[in-house]
Amino acid sequence: MSEPLVKVRNLKIGATVYPPGEKPHDIEIVHGVSFDLQPGKVLGLIGESGAGKSTIGLASMAYGRGGVKITGGEVWINGRDVLKSKLRDVRRLRGGEVTYVSQSAAASFNPAKKIMEQVIEAAVEQGKFSKKEAEARARTLFAKLGLPDPDNIGDRYPHQVSGGQLQRCMTALALCPEPDLVVFDEPTTALDVTTQIEVLMAIKEAIRDTGVAALYITHDLAVVAQVSDDIMVLRHGNTVEYGPVDQIINNPQEEYTQALVSVRSIEHDEKAPTPEPVLSVRNITARYKGTKFDVLHNVNVDLHPGQTLAVVGESGSGKSTLARVITGLLPPREGEIEFAGRTLSPDLAGRSREDLRELQMIYQMADVAMNPRQTVGTIIGRPLEFYFGMRGAEKRKRIIELLDEIELGESFIDRYPAELSGGQKQRVCIARALAAKPKMIICDEVTSALDPLVADGILKLLLELQKIENVAYLFITHDLATVRAISDNIAVMYQGKVQRYGGKTEVLSPPFDDYTDLLLSSVPEMRLGWLEEVIANRKMESAGN
Amino acid sequence: MHPVVKLVSQRLALGLLLLLAASALIFLGTLMLPGDVAQSILGQSATPEALANLREELGLNRPALVRYFDWLFGALQGDLGTALTNGQDIAESIGKRLGNTLFLAFWAAVISVPLAIFLGLLAVRYRDRWPDKLISAVTLASISIPEFLIGYLLIYFVAVQMGWFSSVAMINDSMSLLDKLNAIALPVAVLTLVVLAHMMRMTRAAILNVMQSAYIETAELKGLSTFHVIARHAFPNAIAPIVNVVMLNLAYLVVGVVVIEVVFVYPGMGQYLVDHVAKRDVPVVQACGLIFAAVYILLNMIADIVAILSNPRLRHPK
Amino acid sequence: MKNIPISAMIGLFFTALYFLMAIFAPLLAPYGMAEIVGDVWEPRSAEHLLGTDNIGRDLLSRMIYGGRTTIFIATAATVLSFVTGSVLGFFAAVAGGWVDQVLSRFVDLIMSIPTLIFALVVLSVMPVTVPVLIVVMGLLDSTRVYRLARAVAVDIEVMDYVEAARLRGEKMKWIIFREILPNALSPLVAEMGLRFIFMVLFVSTLSFLGLGVQPPEADWGGIVKENKDGIVYGIPAALLPAFAIATLAISVNLVADWVLNRTTSLKGGRG
């Protein structure tokens, strides 16, 4: 075997933290990580937030973000230990031998400069190419990455192209100087799922065609499985498991890896519709105040008692607007909403206390959905007090029951939201909704801000509670894996219209309309070779057309 | 229309509107408040007849709006009326004093702006080290110290104890530029100290904000030298916030001038305004108030327009 | 009350000291405020710890009474500024629509004229008395408080927890007092310290210009004005009150800075 391109040994990274009310002190965030990377190969670094994966990626460029310092170990690149190199040599390394693609291309491009200028800057500055050569190479890369109008797109400013396009420009920026290694740091995380697959395909093909090696950092195992040769699973700054992609996906050894691989494989059988839906959305058309176009066009959906209707769509599809219309925050221009056998007033002010009690809501960001100045007890207790007039010991008893239901103990009653983890916060929000004894809960992207394992726990809890309380969920999400896990009915939304609607099996089985097909085929699957299949299929289809 | 042209003209129109509204507020405000100009001039012992005569003479019996528009059109043509106390033409009295005030403010700005930007950069360069901490301590102190204390401290120690410079800053036309500069050295020093801390702290914040952007990290990861990172990537984005900081502080300086002129008995607008407030010479106060307000509004407007002009999203629309 | 940094301790100590001196001024001052007890500008002595002023009054006594006036006016104006500014600011944020527009544009207009200049224009027609000073300073400054209160309330208004309270059917009273106010309080309290400093400087400046507290009453700014002519003869009497203003302002600033730092790093809202 040839000498590896990258050889990392016992890498330790520290950071200075500034906890309020305490003296700043140093902590270790990466505790001795080692790996090798051969030329032209891809290593996936995977882990939850706080696992240290981005920090390791940047350390391979001898770079520490903010107060981050590399405290020990070796990072050998092309036979040199970059941690011991002089600053001048490190600068030749950065942008020449090793380049970087960040999560947010929108923030990583200088807003005041044209794209081309930024894409070729490193290549020219490092003396790899002349300006003319670099520009020609950039245009070739733009074309290879599937950017529209590759000859002229470089003359635009970053804000003049879309998010997905800019992410591809960033990849071109990284590939332009012909580096030996590219660090991809969550390059597709901020994108919609149909855009993500395009960028993913472009990156994969570019890696293959240029023969560059890559460190691919992400929290999504299904994504990393598509592009990597090896995978390293990280948790709390330690290596959990490290091996070839085939072994990690198909034969994981560690419990944590097994959990990651089997995430979102909750089995949930579709329930048959009941005669009386609890919620009927009838011909809803809506637009925001002061705008001139409708964001919802003639939407019709039903939700049955004790069941889950998943509303799926990408950003801008109108799915969250539908929630605002149902809650009465945005009165519709046309149409009406029937709920529990009565017609709801279009605006919030006209609804009875009973209407409000029976229709609860859980938000995406549990952080801002709870008043930071109220304790868990006050947060869960307020609906009890407000709707049922409970006081004192009776209220406390009920709060404790609810805390048990969400698998938190009595000890949480006096805590403040800031003292809870992300998953615990979301559980408290669920308890607050349940406290009202609702017939229906709107869940607005309730798991999308959480790490996959935590999100799984929340979904299981919601399903469990549905059985006990017979509550119906209107589940708004962009994540099809979540949809599969929990729904009985599905409405696929696209540009303010319901594109496809019906039982889960029916909606997820062919024949599909074009958009649903695109959406479904874009969701990364946890198996090897999935991306190649999709690429091949799409090429065939476009050839057939 | 190009969005930049549109926004700039909107901002210009807003500036004019504000100026108009401010003039109305100054003029009508002084009319509506309880208090009587004629009474103020003649004192409590004045007879009703004398008061009535004076009111007639001053045109106080005409409707307020008519008087306002008279005053406004006069002001637009450079006629600010006559002072109640000595009957002199206000525009003429103000002319030279305004020149003196601008002379003082100009030199304070010439010294403080580059110094503040330099020190701001220094604070960024040595962030969280002693130069930075010193700067933030000095800022804390300087927003707590009244301008006149700095003035008298300098007079006491520099002018009186050490005998350098004069404690009063008198200037006149017969002086050479060098003599004039020597005369205003102390007031310029005080004004500089007054705005310096603010300006450098705000400059520091503006530059730090830019330096913490993701695109600076991108530039560093391209292996560019620190100089290139700052010159090519930070500087173009930092101009607007820094100009904004400078303009806001110049506006602040214009107000600081009032007190400093009194401390150093400097023959400028501020001294003139304060004297006539004490004498309740309303026309003079209105004229001076309008001019100060106009300068203030103008500087704020320039700050906003620079921000619009330097925003790439507006300059290069989709 | 543990974990107070040393700077905040110093600030608290001196702030308390100045306020206590203001409250107990008649007990502490060795002589009357306007009592002439010696020669002009006597140097420091056992009888007159800080010497005498420009017409032979005891400077220490005058300083103590002057501090009382300065602190009283600044406090009253701060309270007025806060009550007016935050009530209108919250009201504008919660009401929204044209109420917000009218109030905010009016505040923009007032703020387009520098505060000191505006105050001078108003004082040129109004009689210069203590109540007038308090009202003029308080109302002019309330524009700053209005902006802050409105901005804070608007930020909180769009939070999901406020929406959750609305969806629950809570009344306006609960939303303002239980959801918005507890979260808006800390930035407002920290701002209060800064406004108080501004008021101290403002009233001192006005008095120094001869347009604030009128003799024989005195405040620190006025004492500076009375004794400023001594400076050229090397008599530092005018520097003492100026120094008092600066130390009071710095002390309050240290406390405000600590409150602000403490509240920006919220941990469950306690501590």
From TrEMBL, chain A:
Coiled coil stretches, renumbered: none
Keywords: ATP-binding, Hydrolase, Nucleotide-binding, Transport
EC class of the enzyme, as a word: hydrolase
GO BP terms in the entry: peptide transport; transmembrane transport
Membrane topology of the entry: Peripheral membrane protein
Keyword Hydrolase on entry: yes
Keyword Nucleotide-binding: yes
Annotated localization: Cell inner membrane
Gene3D superfamilies noted in UniProt: P-loop containing nucleotide triphosphate hydrolases
Name of the featured protein: Glutathione import ATP-binding protein GsiA
TrEMBL record, chain B:
Keyword Protein biosynthesis in record: no
Any one Gene Ontology cellular component term annotated for this protein: plasma membrane
Domain ABC transmembrane type-1: start-end pairs: 98-303
This protein's UniProt keywords: Cell membrane, Membrane, Transmembrane, Transmembrane helix, Transport
Any one of the GO BP annotations: transmembrane transport
Pfam families: BPD_transp_1, BPD_transp_1_N
Domain of life: Bacteria
Keyword Electron transport: no
Protein localization: Cell membrane
Transmembrane region(s): 12-33, 102-122, 134-160, 180-199, 242-264, 284-309
Stored InterPro entries: BPD_transp_1_N, MetI-like, MetI-like_sf
Membrane topology: Multi-pass membrane protein
PANTHER family: DIPEPTIDE TRANSPORT SYSTEM PERMEASE PROTEIN DPPB-RELATED
Protein family according to the UniProt entry: Belongs to the binding-protein-dependent transport system permease family.
Protein name stated in the entry: Glutathione transport system permease protein GsiC
Organism (species): Phaeobacter italicus
Automatic annotation (TrEMBL), chain C:
Transmembrane segments: 6-29, 71-96, 116-140, 196-213, 233-260
One Pfam family named in its UniProt record: BPD_transp_1
CDD domains linked to this entry: TM_PBP2
Keywords: Cell membrane, Membrane, Transmembrane, Transmembrane helix, Transport
ABC transmembrane type-1 domain boundaries: 67-256
GO biological process, one term: transmembrane transport
Main location: membrane
Membrane-protein topology: Multi-pass membrane protein
A single cellular component GO annotation: plasma membrane
Signal peptide: none
UniProt subcellular location: Cell membrane
Entry similarity comment: Belongs to the binding-protein-dependent transport system permease family.
PANTHER family per UniProt: OLIGOPEPTIDE TRANSPORT SYSTEM PERMEASE PROTEIN APPC (PTHR43386), PEPTIDE ABC TRANSPORTER PERMEASE PROTEIN (PTHR43386:SF25)
Protein name in UniProt: Stage 0 sporulation protein KC
Species, as recorded: Phaeobacter italicus
Organism taxonomic ancestry: Bacteria, Pseudomonadati, Pseudomonadota, Alphaproteobacteria, Rhodobacterales
Gene: oppC_1
